[in-house]
Amino acid sequence: MPIQHSPPERQTRSQARTPAVLTPNPRAPLDGTPASEPSLLEIMQKMTQIMANLHATSSSESSRPPAFKTPSMKAPECFDGTQPFRVRSFIQYFQLIFHNDPENFSQDRKKVLYAMSFLICRAAKRIEPCLSYLTNQDSNYLLNSWNLFEFKLFTLFGDPNEVRQAEAESDSLRMKEGGHFSLKIADFRSLVSIIGDWGERALINHFRKGFPSRILDQLASHPSRIDYLPDLMDVTLELDTRYH
Questions:
Q1: Which of 20, 47, 75, 120 measures 20 to 30 Å from 68, CA to CA?
Q2: 90, 48, 52, 96: which is closest to 71 by C-alpha?
Q3: 180 in the Ramachandran plot: left (φ > 0), alpha (ψ -120 to 50) or beta?
Q4: What distance in Å separates the CA atoms of residue 137 and residue 145, rounded to the nearest whole number?
Q5: Where are the domains of the chain?
Q6: How many CB atoms lie within 10 A of CB 15?
């Protein structure tokens, strides 16, 4: 009896196999020859170039000078005008602020208005009338001159006997035989800042008062005459350093 073969099953579209699509290799040569992998030498050369570029970038950045930023300072303490001995320290602190930030305080008017914002109570009331003339641009007006503002503060709130006391202290400055000249110089400079301009000759005479004999003897044999106070301070400080 002959063998009967069953007819082949029909494949549906979903069952039909989709032929594989070959994605071309972008690195493959156009002539069809197989692509070659980079050699170890090429890889090392590439790494060397990358490291050289990184080193060049790092060197250029490190060679740039660091950007300087002005250190910030705390705000001044308010002044109420009741303590005459505080006027000088109040003004001196503003001078430090102005020197620390010259860009923002390039004009006297900015300096004066900033300092006035820290006056309170009695001090603020005495200065308040000046604010009625904010539009006045005259350079000789108080709001436009830091020197005039300083003078006004000393006149209104300063100690009227401050200069006289400083003069008396400068006359009584004495230095022991084994003392250090750096301390005398610091004290004398502090007093001179209060006394003002006495003239170079008068300042030198007051500074020499109270010198120990060991310094006076060496100054007497100094090869040249000293007519400038900073020079005299430098010479005496050098002589004192040799002694100690």
A1: 75
A2: 96
A3: beta
A4: 10
A5: 86-157, 162-243
A6: 8
C-beta of residue 91 within 8 angstroms of C-beta of residue 153: yes
> pTM of the prediction?
0.53
Q: Kindly state the tokens that stand for 95.
A: 């001078």
Give how far Cα 26 sits from Cα of 63, 207, 216, Å.
42, 91, 95
Interatomic CA distance for residues 75 and 198, integer angstroms: 34
> Are the CB atoms for 94 and 76 separated by under 8 Å?
yes
Q: What is the pLDDT of residues 43-77, one digit of tens each?
A: 666 666 766 666 565 555 445 544 445 567 788 89
Cβ pair 121, 80 in contact under 8 A = yes
Please write the tens of the pLDDT for every residue from 5-22: 555 555 545 454 555 444
